[in-house]
Design brief:
By secondary structure, the protein is of the alpha+beta class. Helix content is 29%, strand content 27%. The chain is built from eight helices and 16 strands. The radius of gyration is 19 Å and the shape is globular. The relative contact order is 0.15. It binds 4'-deoxy-4'-aminopyridoxal-5'-phosphate (PMP).
Length: 290
């Protein structure tokens, strides 16, 4: 595997970051997870835009102009001969000293890993996921906006640990007011009486690109989609619930906190969105080998 770090490609065993990098010392940095389908990078420019927004929000100056990061991302796919897979694009604050101060980090570090992807087994798409709401709340937007895709994932990792301890596949996180925010690594949608609803970003969610794509897709096929606050009750009584994320794509939920969702089998609207989303992933995206 060839890994891009600050303008050069390294073999996996040689791809190293300083222990003084604030990405490691403090989780000070931003990242993107991006899919490669059928020789194309899916939603590449949207991911680059979100990376730039995350960096701006935390006052992190990107070490390369965005078009160069874009070119390096595509080149990393070529170097690894990938037609399908997953890209991890990371920008850290860079090498500093042991203090917090970012002004001691003169240059941000950028690295790009492109690899095969670990997917949910197909049975979860056929049967649905078991999810639980977890005690760890999503960080309030006034503390650290969940809209920033930062390297600080401890909040999400705590949620993951809690859901795994409960034997579930995903964790639904509530915000500090008790409303549904999102999952540890996915956004959440419910369908009730034909209307699709997902929490607004300001509920404490990442502006997921799969979320946005699925909202557009659902509206294009004439479905009403709302962004409004949801409670646990709304989840329990939904006709269908599904999650969206770059790695998960669109994945159905069959059980939340022991309540069976709908019939207990993935519903027709979720099934339709899964099919349509998969069709689009095969056609859309920036060609790697043109
Ligand atoms: N929420 C969180 C916390 C995430 O980490 C992610 C990405 N894995 C998502 C939602 C989904 O976002 P996207 O569709 O852009 O992958």
């Amino acid at each position: 595997m060839k890994i891009f770090i600050d303008g050069k490609f390294y073999d996996e065993s040689e791809a190293k970051i300083s222990v003084f990098d604030h990405g490691l010392l403090y989780g000070d940095g931003v990242f993107e997870g991006i899919r490669i389908y059928n020789g194309r990078v899916f939603l590449l420019d949207e991911h680059l835009d979100r990376l730039a927004d995350s960096a701006k929000a935390i006052m992190l100056k990107l070490p390369l102009p965005l078009p160069e990061i874009r070119a390096a991302t595509l080149e990393t796919c070529r170097q690894n001969n990938l037609r399908d897979g997953y890209i991890r694009l990371v920008v850290t604050r860079g090498v500093g000293n042991l203090g917090l101060s970012p002004d001691k980090c003169p240059k941000a570090t950028v690295f790009i890993i492109a690899d095969a992807i670990q997917l949910y087994p197909e049975k979860f798409y056929e049967e649905g996921l078991r999810v639980v709401t977890v005690p760890t709340q999503r960080i309030p937007p006034a503390a650290l906006s969940p809209a920033v895709k930062s390297l600080n994932y401890l909040n999400n990792i705590m949620a993951k640990i809690e859901c795994q301890a409960a034997g579930a596949q995903e964790a639904i996180m509530l915000n500090h007011e008790g409303y549904v925010a999102e999952c540890s690594g996915d956004n959440v949608f419910v369908l009730k009486k034909g209307i699709i609803t997902t929490p607004p970003i300001w509920a404490g969610a990442l502006g997921g690109l799969t979320r946005k794509y699925v909202i557009d897709l659902a509206r294009q096929i004439g479905r009403e989609v709302r962004e409004s606050m949801l409670t646990r009750y709304d989840l329990f009584v939904a006709d269908e619930v599904f999650l969206t994320g770059t790695a998960a794509e669109v994945v159905p939920v069959s059980d939340i906190d022991g309540r069976i969702i709908g019939t207990g089998k993935p519903g027709p609207v979720t099934g339709d969105l899964i099919r349509r989303f998969r069709e689009l992933t095969r056609l859309a995206g920036v060609a790697i080998y043109s």
